[in-house]
Amino acid sequence: VTMLIMMAAAAVAAASAAVDGARATPAEQARAMVAKMTFEQQVDGFMHGVRGPYVGQTGGVAAFNVPPLTMEDGPQGVADGVKHATVYPGVLTVTSAWDDEAAHRYGEAMATEQRMKGTMVMLGPMVNIARVPTGGRNFESTGEEPYLAAPMARALVQGIQSRGVIANVKHLILNNQEFNRTLVSASVDERTWHEVYMVAFKAAAQAGCLSAMCSYNRINGTYACEHESTLRELKAANFDGFIVSDWGATHSAVPAVTAGLDIEMPEMHFFNTTGLSGAPRQRVADAAARVLTAMIAQNLLDNPPKGNLTTNSRSPARTHLARTLAVDGTVLLHNDGNLLPLAADGGGKHLAVIGEASNNTAGAAGHGSGYVCCENLYLPLAGITDAARQTYTITAATNTTNIDSAVAALKQADVAVVVIAVMSGEGHDRTTLGLDPHTDELLGRLTDAGGAKIVLVVYSTGGVDISPHHAKVGAVVAAGAGGEQFGGALADVLFGRANPAGRLPVTWASRMPFDSKRQYPGEDNEQVYSERLEVGYKWYRAHAPSSILYPFGHGVSYTTFSHVDVELVNNINERFLKFFCVNDGNVMGDDVPQLYVKYPEAYGEPGFQLRAFKRVRNVRPGEKKHVKLDFSDPQMISFWNVNTSRWQLATGTFTVALGASATQMLWTQPMVIMP
């Protein structure tokens, strides 16, 4: 018996040593440390916010050398009015590059600055699907398609966390409108939930994301931060990190913590020692351990960030990256008659630059918690003027209150760049998909006076109804929310120093994709997702194809491409499309081939759906580059079975397509999936 006792003691000691040792996982180390803490230390150290210089921070546990966990907005740089930081393009603009490697660099750069300023948790990426085209925070999102959002989410998370900062994927879940966001309940069926709205969140979790934020809205009647099946499902998806409430989105103590919420922000109205006194102690310890796990995983106990919010985190390299990202995310929507690019040497031609947005900061960023302070902005007029190098005679009509003066400037010009901005921000959705009355009148007068010589530049936070003007102008450029270098980036594209290759991550249409107010903005504090799987281009293509101005995935460039030797490989464990991308033009450029899949009709899936893509960079004239679009992940040809509450492989005859957009399939072939 004595020997058995000694052996048991030795085993316990060995296990403790393993937990305390270097080989223990962050979760094991965290649980061992939290087990030694009091209830008060667990709650006050980890589970609620305290006032401080950051938008959010916890109390920390000094007795265990655990510092406060600092949090800062946002998804496109160091926000909340913090000075001396790079103003990067919006997430939707970077998503328009259709390049996960660019998204990774974006995440790295933003996290580098966050850490320089003392931030431990960067409150991004935001991966809510852009269900509502006028959604106020669409500029922070990764678009309307789950299988575009998912690779972007993975890349952003990995980029952010590669710099010793905790990524925070948000807003979990169905936070798809700003109107009435704190009261509205999203009523959605289980299949739609998983096939459309949960995909990007799970991709972030599988990429190792260490934190998530639950949203303001209710889900089928229950507040998101108390919605147990949502919070638990994320935690079951290889997610060891913590879930924090959006600021003020906590509505209870015991129900919320029991459901899976770990931190209340920004203070402690519910998550305090009194409110949590009736909560299961094991769940409280788990919440504290999850926060500590993330900190240990990012080495924040032994190597916390040294700076503070006043630190200057700017650098020439990151300024250059901001410009590059803005160029990469610029989408040339059409270019009739090759009006673009403008010649580098204008030979004295008259160039008019028209529009208030050409000489103000509107096109740099959307607004709200994700807005990065407005220093060092390179305005469009300045960028165009610098690029013209005094070889053009430039007339600037930046005050368009008097439309007659803008028309006069156009008539005198050989070519005119007309710049408009249709922006939005947190807390409110755009009131219309179209233009304000003054801008609408301005474009109407200008296009009547000389539309063929107009390059229309649209800065926006999402899709815009620019009809009927778009059909009357020579070229349309979608420049998104371009960040501090938006003027220089625009000039790079207009004057051909860069060949645009962005593609739309959202549909541009002349109407909203809803048939009733119950769908949007909702009635009696309820919005009904009755369109189900038909979100974005899937709805427009099926129900209002004539309203599509420019489809999801669309974009042109200063060259043209063809695709040859296309071959579909369909084996048990792998599926991919391989081909050669050929530059048929006379300038180097990038192509973005897209792979779409159409399910057998029996499954009720909405036509061709994006499953893979690749930005093929720097293809020289006449060059052939080999491309492989992989869709081996079984989920990409599966459906959510509501009877088993899990993914199930679909079988039968699919159609696989190589596409230029969601409405333009260049090559198709049947594909049989056996039971």
Describe this structure in words.
By secondary structure, the chain is an alpha/beta fold. Helix content is 27%, strand content 21%. A 6-stranded mixed beta sheet has the order 11-16-15-14-12-13, sandwiched between helices. A 4-stranded mixed beta sheet has the order 1-2-3-4. Strands 9-8-6-18 form a 4-stranded mixed beta sheet, with no helix packed on it. The longest helix is centred in the first third of the chain and has 19 residues, at 2-20. Mean pLDDT is 95; it is low at 1-19.
Indicate the topology.
Elements: H1 2-20, H2 26-34, H3 39-46, E1 56-57, E2 70-72, H4 91-95, H5 100-116, E3 121-122, H6 146-161, E4 166-167, E5 169-172, E6 185-187, H7 190-197, H8 199-206, E7 211-214, E8 218-219, E9 222-223, H9 228-235, E10 242-245, H10 254-259, H11 281-297, H12 316-328, E11 331-335, E12 350-354, H13 380-388, E13 393-397, H14 403-412, E14 415-422, H15 437-450, E15 454-460, E16 475-480, H16 486-494, E17 508-509, E18 526-528, H17 537-543, E19 548-550, E20 561-570, E21 575-583, E22 589-591, E23 594-598, E24 609-613, E25 616-619, E26 624-630, E27 638-641, E28 646-649, E29 652-661, E30 664-673
Helix pairs in contact: 2-11, 3-11, 5-6, 5-12, 6-8, 12-16, 13-16, 14-15
